[in-house]
Design a protein that fits this description.
heterodimer; A: 518 residues; Spore Coat Polysaccharide Biosynthesis Protein SpsA, Chain A; 8 strands; globular; B: 491 residues; seven-stranded antiparallel β-sheet; four-stranded antiparallel β-sheet
């Protein structure tokens, strides 16, 4: 039956409105409850805080396990592991292909970035413990980025071309109909060109692994080996994406303290998400088989959150039989920062809002579910609830904890008159919040352990800052934790769609960055 | 981490949540296990605050660890004997009833010094005194050595100046008696003296020079009040007409408002009842405009009205702000068209939120409700013994009860626990008492002799910031002293 476009549009709008609506209704509802039924409101807030504290403790346990995983696998010789696995269990899927058959493609989308951002990323690829001749590097350059950018890309290509199997530059024309000005459109263009390249050379798609990395991403030395291992050892290798752990170490020693804390918690979040495989979704830099890319028709060309959208596309395409494999290797990126504190705050806010714009996946997924009868209903409900729940939680938790839970304390005389709960509320919530101190301590310890080596020309007091910066956590909770998400959901709800915002990259190595700052 | 372990951890956390949730909720509602009876009981608590802080709390004879201000949680419902003790202060004793899920508040308990000081303000043997509106000056009718007359007393610090000699008073038919009424100008630089219908003006910068109002305007008006806006001007009522006279500019403005039966001036606004029409009006001194407020119910031209203006003086909501007492025995709440009979006096607290009505044998406390078209609702009735001589608002929540032998502080009910507390006993008899609510000073004439003269004394009942302010005032030059230096009239 042909679907009515009007009905489809209405459904789509409904799904676009739903997340923001639920978040706002919830927040307003809590305020109403506190003012008009203060005892119930206080009890609700206690329940919410208790739930949150237990959740934080649960996530902290997962974080510890994830961190242990990361530490354990840090020095793994992945290639040797493949060989060992094949020797021991030759019938394993890892043995139906050899390492030599696997071709890696590293795709860097480039807009206005110059050598100081691109060269370190290319160098990191070149420094991998892997046969560089099995790696093709592609710069997907936006035409609208300008001539200078293209020239810089060409220069880098000239310098590094001989190191790799090949070094390609594809220029994405501006203004193609049906495309938005997004990274997804750029890398899709490059991927289509890559397909032509592979077809000319008669390379099998399922032998090609495409790693789409942000242009400031510096892969760790064992990245490609680890990726190859996970790909070969996965029986459903082409129905999977491969997700490394993003860390923000490129400019960690130069960035503003609170920005460091925010990005570290983002890394921790990805570590934790990797432990929940049934819910894991791709984020930022990730890898997948060319076969998958072709079959799902590449990344969306009109969405900002292409990194997660590709997952959902594949999920729907493969009728729910698609998963993300967490790789416990790191890829390092820049912390969104700026010369002044205020600009840094703004950049952080905008970046988090762009990440939160992943809520646009919800209507996309729901619309796909509507027309898909092969994915079991229970599975659809589970995944829909997952997306909705995550964005709802993201948009509301910090506002409830940071802004609304003090209301019964501040307005006690007005709200509670003389009931005992008005006096007990601060002591109970205080006690619960104190329990989260354990989590913060663990986060501090893990973050210190993950830090790259301090540049020699930075004073030792910088290490103390790395410890004390976590004092910013309450402030961050108040302003950056939920507001960007609520902003994104509200925009989606009201039809004021977000444009793609490019995170400013400062560029340079850690040492270079320090020298430049001085 | 294997999925199975993760799921186990997840469900463990869910279980933990559902176990801890009722525990937290019950705990926050005040439920505790009574280990004696092995039952879950809902407890109450007590909140104790004193001025000054740091008083020891003794509950049912047991000294508690925290000092005031303190919250004492986990109290089984019942009555508790409470003592609040601090060195150098009188121990406060009272009983507090704790109810389940209720925080009994013993708020703002004032601790008074163990030794109350009855400061003699001056050597003047006083018959009468009149404290200025700002509380910094006083006019005293009395005798100092051989000089008798009207004295101007600066209260902070204590300095006296004879501003009206007895002979001058006598020549104008004025004498220190209960019939003498003195009204202060807002700037404390002039007063109106009235006795037997005769009104005189005294500029305190020009001692012994009385201005006969009749000489200025041609007659003695029925009443006169000072303007709050123009310090040298007073309004007077004569045959239903309101006029104004400026004694500095020697200018008379007659017939500003006509047809007045009764009026009350407050802070730039004149509230009056129009004769025959029975409408309550509000006239603005600044704008020279009037607005009608309400028609007075049961109006009669023969009635004597007193308008009790709320200290907030705000016209909104209008019906609350102007209340009328009819025939001196009834208090009429215009909002609710409700009458309270047998009322002797009525007075608002400083906040303008509570009204005290005094009746034979009891006091009624009325409170402004928060509802629209604000009304007064009765919140408390206090029985009073016949020996009670005067009642004052100590602050917004307490009353000062003055008996012939002692002074008590009475905490009103409401959010705080009500209680009564003896503050001090008079060392001897007293006559003429005045309570300065702003500075918390009690003035009275003690040990009156047969002639009716006595020593003017003051008891300082202030605390904290007020006490510090008074101390500061004492240390700086008083206005009176300064202005007398300027006029060259220093004693």
């Amino acid at each position: 039956m042909k679907s009515n476009p009007q009905i489809e549009l209405r459904w789509r709008r409904f799904f676009e409105i739903l997340p923001g609506f639920l978040s706002w209704i919830f927040l307003v509802g809590v305020v109403f409850l506190v003012f008009f039924a203060p005892v119930l409101g206080a009890l609700f807030l206690i329940a919410f805080i208790l739930y949150w504290v237990i959740r934080v403790l649960y996530l902290t346990v997962l974080l510890v396990f994830a961190y242990r995983h990361l530490r354990k696998q840090k020095n793994t010789d992945w290639l040797a592991l493949i060989e060992q696995t094949c020797r021991q269990k030759p019938k394993q899927s890892a043995c139906d292909k050899t390492i030599e058959e696997i071709q890696h493609v590293v795709l860097f989308p480039v807009y206005k970035e110059k050598e100081d951002t691109l060269i370190p990323s290319v160098k990191a690829v070149a420094g991998n413990h892997y046969s560089l001749k099995k790696i093709i590097v592609i710069f997907a350059v936006e035409e609208r980025g300008g001539r200078e950018v293209l020239e810089a890309a060409e220069e880098i290509r000239r310098r590094y071309r001989d190191k790799f199997g090949d070094f390609l530059i594809y220029v994405h024309p501006d203004g193609i109909e049906g495309e938005s000005r997004t990274k997804g459109a750029n890398i899709t263009w490059a991927a289509r060109k890559l397909k032509e390249y592979l077809d000319e050379r008669k390379m099998a798609y399922d032998n090609v692994l495409v790693s789409c990395l942000d242009c400031d991403t510096r892969v760790s030395r064992s990245y490609f080996a680890c990726l190859t291992y996970h790909y070969l050892s996965n029986p459903n290798r082409t129905q999977a994406s491969y997700q490394p752990v993003p860390v923000y170490h490129n400019n960690i020693w130069q960035a503003k303290s609170f920005a460091r804390v925010i990005e570290m918690t983002s890394s921790f979040w990805q570590l934790i998400e990797g432990m929940k495989r049934e819910k894991f979704v791709t984020f930022s830099s990730h890898s997948l088989s060319m076969k998958t890319l072709v079959e799902v028709d590449y990344w969306p060309v009109d969405m900002i959150s292409d990194d997660s959208a590709i997952y959902w596309r594949a999920y729907v395409h493969y009728q729910g039989r698609y998963h993300v494999v967490p790789m416990y290797v790191t890829v390092s990126m820049d912390i969104a920062t700026a010369p002044t504190l205020w600009e840094t705050v703004c950049n952080q806010y905008k970046q988090k809002r762009r990440w939160a714009w992943g809520v646009e996946n919800f209507p996309m997924v729901m619309m796909a579910f509507r027309h898909n009868s092969k994915i079991p209903r229970i599975e659809k409900i589970r995944r829909a609830t997952q997306i909705l729940g995550e964005h709802f939680t993201w948009a509301t938790w910090a506002i409830v904890i940071g802004w609304l839970s003090p209301l019964p304390i501040l307005l006690r005389d007005y709200l509670f008159a003389q009931s005992v709960i008005g006096y007990q509320f601060p002591s109970i919530t205080g006690m619960l919040f104190n329990l989260t101190g354990i989590s913060i301590l663990i986060c501090i310890l893990i973050s210190m352990s993950l830090l790259p080596k301090k540049p020699a020309n930075l004073p030792r007091t910088q290490m103390i800052k790395m410890f004390t910066q976590w004092l910013f956590t309450p402030l961050i909770t108040l302003f950056i934790a939920s507001l960007p998400s609520l902003d994104a959901q509200t925009r989606l709800m009201t039809g004021r769609y977000l444009g793609f915002w490019v995170t400013p990259k400062l560029g340079g190595s850690t040492e270079e960055g320090v020298r430049r700052k001085k | 981490m294997p999925t199975i372990y993760r799921l186990m951890l997840f469900y463990f956390c869910v279980l933990l949540f559902f176990i801890l949730l009722p525990v937290c909720m019950l705990y926050s509602l005040g439920y505790r296990v009574n280990w004696k009876t092995h039952r879950l009981e809902q407890l109450g608590m007590m909140v104790v605050r004193t001025t000054p802080d740091d008083a020891r709390i003794i509950l049912n004879g047991k000294i508690l660890y925290p000092k005031t201000p303190a919250r004492i949680p986990n109290l089984f419902p019942g009555e508790y004997a409470v003592q609040l003790a601090k060195e150098g202060y009188q121990t406060w004793t009272g009983a507090v009833r704790v109810k389940p899920n209720w925080a009994a508040r013993l708020d703002s308990v004032f601790l008074f010094p163990g030794e109350m000081e009855f400061q003699a303000l001056s050597d003047i043997q006083a018959e009468q005194f009149f404290v200025s509106p700002k509380g910094r000056k006083m006019l005293v009718c009395g005798r100092l050595a051989e000089d008798r007359g009207l004295w101007l007393l600066d209260l902070f610090p204590e300095e006296e100046i004879l501003v009206l000699e007895h002979s001058v008073m006598k020549s104008h038919g004025l004498r220190c008696s209960e019939a003498l009424k003195i009204t202060w100008a807002k700037n404390e630089k002039a007063v109106l003296l009235e006795e037997g219908g005769h009104i005189f003006l005294l500029d305190l910068k020009k001692p012994n020079r009385l201005l006969d109002v009749k000489g200025a305007i041609g007659f003695y008006p029925e009443s006169a009040v000072w303007s709050a806006k123009a310090p040298d001007t007073f309004y007077y009522l004569h045959q239903g007409s309101l006029s104004a006279y400026s004694f500095k500019r020697k200018r008379n403005q007659s017939g500003l408002v006509e047809g007045i039966q009764a009026f009350k001036y407050y802070d730039g606004f004149l509230y009056y009842i129009e004769q025959n029409a029975g409408i309550l009006w509000r006239w603005s001194e600044d704008l020279l405009e009037k607005n009608s407020i309400i028609r007075v119910p049961d109006y009669s031209l023969k009635n004597h009205y007193e308008i009790i203006v709320n200290p907030l003086g705000d016209i909104l909501p209008p019906l609350l702000q102007a209340d009328v007492r009819v025939n001196q025995t009834e208090f009429y709440d215009l909002n609710a068209a409700k009458k309270f009979e047998g009322i002797k006096t009525a007075g608002w607290d400083r906040s303008g939120k509570r009204l005290l009505l005094e009746r034979e044998g009891e006091l009624l406390i009325l409170e402004e409700t928060a509802s629209r078209g604000a009304k007064l609702k009765g919140t408390e009735t206090i029985e009073t013994p016949r020996s009670l001589r005067r009642v004052f608002w100590f602050d917004d929540e307490k009353l000062l009860f003055v008996y012939p032998q002692a002074v008590f502080l009475r905490q009103l009910g409401g959010e705080s626990q009500p209680y009564a507390q003896e503050i001090f006993r008079f060392p001897a008899g007293w006559k003429e008492i005045f309570w300065d609510v702003r500075f918390k000073q009690l003035y009275f004439i003690s040990q009156p002799s047969h002639s009716g003269e006595g020593t003017l004394r003051r008891v300082d009942l202030s605390h904290g910031p007020v006490r510090a302010f008074i101390r500061n005032m004492r240390e700086t030059m008083s206005d009176g002293w300064q202005f007398f230096q300027e006029s060259g009239q220093t004693k």
